[in-house]
Amino acid sequence: MRLHEFEAANIFEAIGIPVPRRGVAGTVEEALLVAGEIGYPVMLKSQVLVGGRGLAGGIKAASNQEELEEIAEALLGSEIKGSTVRNLLVTEKANISKELYVGITVDGYSGRPVIVASTDGGVSIEETARTAPEKIASLQVDPFFGFYPYQARTLLRKLGLGQSLLIAWADVIGRLYHIFSQYETLIVEINPLVVLPNGGLLAVDAVLEVDNSALSRIRHPLPDWVERIENPLERKGREIGITYVDLDGDIGLISSGAGLGMASMDIIGEKMRPANFLETGGGITEELLYRCMELVMMKTDLRAIFINIYGGINPIHEGAKGVARYIREHSVKIPIVAKALGNHQEETWDIFRSVGVHVVTEAATEKAVERLFELVGGEK
Amino acid sequence: MGILMDDSTRVIVQGITGRIGSIQTRWMLAYGTKVVGGVTPGKEGSVVEGVPVFDSVEGAVKETGANASVFFVPAAFVLDAFLETVDAGIKLIVVVPEHIPIHDVMKMRVYAIERGVFALGPTTPGILVPGKGKMGIMPASLFAPGRVGIISRSGTLSYEFAGILSESRVGQSTVVGMGADHVVLTNLVDILRLFEEDDGTDAVIIVGEVGGEQEEKAARFIQEKMTKPVAAYIAGRYSPQGKQMGHAGAIVRGSAGTVGGKQEALREAGVEVLASPIHVARFAQKHNLK
Questions:
Q1: What is the CATH number of the domain that holds B80?
Q2: In terms of Cα–Cα distance, which of B221, B192, B217, B190 is closest to B205?
Q3: Domain of A253?
Q4: Tens-place pLDDT, residues A144-164
């Protein structure tokens, strides 16, 4: 779960990382009030959970009341990369003498936390990584040994810093690592970490993503993960414990497993367009597949449903019963093609056939998609 | 032949008294796996599917001579059980459960590697050696004995590939689910190495997916070290960028880990890149695989 900048900044502040004076505003009037308290000029920052919001025009400076009104009016309610701006973070505008970068993330390949620092922070950090790798230093941490402050100093020495900046920056890294372990984050990042004219540091942005698998044991207050999912269908998917991604095609998809789901989308996508991605995870039950049918059918104008499941953890005929019950109760008219293999597959096929589902018994998803295409053809 | 296990591997099931642990024990036994014991703290003395249950891994090892373990332990307790299992001297561990916190997985990985333990998962269907045995949840009906090795990041896609090969009368030496999470306990390269060294394997199929660096690193290894033919399929071409597709490992972050990038790296290493799963049958035919 990614936090909004204002939520992450509060966590940074509580742990002693210097952050700008700021306030959250949901209306132009609130923005005026916050700016009045802070004093102009201020920054207005759209609170959306997408990367690159600055380049997309979601961050603007206002030097007086008139400018603020105009900008806040335009930003609030606008869309940035598909996300609606509901709140603005209004902050003091820092005097920047230098922009640094620091982030801690999980390196998937080594399976270790990695701390990354650069003296060349700001919007072009990824470009710097490609063109001037000497300006970036990184350090892997042993997850058992944990982090000690000397590691941050060792890391920063590689960047050839003066002593006072090195000590202040190492202190920020120590606090950031504390957040990384306390909040079990996948990533925690400050870009830019600003050096002020007086030599002090200020975290001008705050990125923090918590590991969803750890949400139930993190001992700090966090926003509700399900509530913040904007798309109502995706939210309902999360409520029933499956992964649903809303797409704009007209073929409903139910699959067991992310890999199989993605492969199904790839194959369907050759000639038709999926309306959604849905993966049940392991442990298919009658109730779960009934609810999956309910969810997929909430989308209007579907032309067909494609079910692609394997029974590993549970016998799959239980799941088939859920699909059949839904079809009977709601007299579903659109064609349904199902490929279901694994434990209790023959019973599963019988159940599907009894309610008119087109069953494909071969292993290759391509064969089942061919069948689907025979039934419904290409795009409308 | 095959890799990692055979019909003499002595397996314990951790979390054997749970609903999934007990039904999977029945299916593993039915497939011929030598399941010699189970572990659930507090349940010593009970018997599940004719298999004795122990309080501790150490006790189970002492009484049964077990040398491998498969996990059906609730996610929150996996780290603890894993460390216990490594300390008890078990050298092969299959971690089936999903949704294990990544900060736990990082610890498990370091602990296993430093002690010479080969571990798979999390979020893996496990290992299956056709006709010999299985550790995990792979549905037996799709597999047939033969000489093709399969390594898959996705559980259900490993069944799909084995199923397509079996229907074309091409068997498998071993099917390995390496786990679908962002961090896995053993990387793709280390499994490829075992297949390269295995006398019972003539070719290897890699079933990858969008995200991470596993396939890119594997490409380098294949180019430098592998002599056997390799084919690869990468799922996720039409997955919307930046949207989570069920597993942390499948998150698309920026340009790294794209389907196209992986395909290119593999192709340059001499791997036959399969545009769609069904093409694996043609690959098998071309190399006269059995």
A1: 3.40.50.720
A2: B192
A3: 232-376
A4: 999 999 999 999 999 998 889
CA nearest B16: which of B56, B67, B53? B53
Whether residues A316 and A245 fall in one domain: yes
Cβ distance B156 to A274 less than 8 Å, yes or no, reads: no
Residues B25 and B38: beta-carbon distance below 8 Å = yes
* B277 and B152 both lie in a single domain: yes
Task: From first to last of the 290 residues of chain B, give the pLDDT tens digit.
Answer: 799 999 999 999 999 999 999 999 999 999 999 999 999 999 999 999 999 999 999 999 999 999 999 999 999 999 999 999 999 999 999 999 999 999 999 999 999 999 999 999 999 999 999 999 999 999 999 999 999 999 999 999 999 999 999 999 999 999 999 999 999 999 999 999 999 999 999 999 999 998 888 999 999 999 999 999 999 999 998 876 554 333 323 323 335 688 999 999 999 999 999 999 999 999 999 999 98
Is the omega angle on the peptide bond into residue B122 within 30 degrees of 0, that is, cis? yes
In angstroms, the CA B250 to CA B265 distance is 18
Count the domains in chain B. Answer: 2
- Residues B97 and A32: their CA atoms lie apart, in Å, by 51
Nearest to A115 by CA among A141, A89, A88: A141
Cβ contacts of B160 on chain A, cutoff 8 Å: 260, 263, 310, 363-365
Is A16 domain-assigned? no
Chain A CB contacts of B99 under 8 Å are: 212-213
Cβ pair B138:A312 closer than 8 A: yes
User: Is position A33 within any domain?
Assistant: yes
Whether B177 and B245 map to the same domain: the answer is: yes
- CA–CA separation, B93 and B73 (whole Å): 12
Name the residue among A213, A310, A362 with its Cβ closest to that of B100: A213
**Could you tell me which of B133, B129, B134 has the C-alpha nearest to residue B148?**
B129
Contact present, B154 and A365 (Cβ < 8 Å): no
Q: Is B125 inside a domain boundary? A: no
Closest Cβ opposite residue A213 in set B102, B153, B217: B102
Last residue of a domain, one of B91, B120, B149: B120
Please report the ipTM that was assigned to this predicted complex: 0.93
- CATH number of the domain within which A288 lies: 3.40.50.261
- Strands A251-255 and A304-311 turn out to be parallel
End-of-domain residue from the set B87, B120, B153: B120
Burial of B55 (0-12, 13-18, 19+ CB in 10 A): middle
Catalytic residue list contains A150: no
B132: in domain: no
Residues A87 and A104 in one domain: no
Angle at CA of residue B116, ends B114 and B122, nearest 5° = 85
The neighbouring-strand residues paired with B253 are B256
Three-state DSSP class for residue A83: strand
Structural domain including B89 reads 11-120
Same domain, B92 and B153: no
In a domain, A153, yes or no: yes
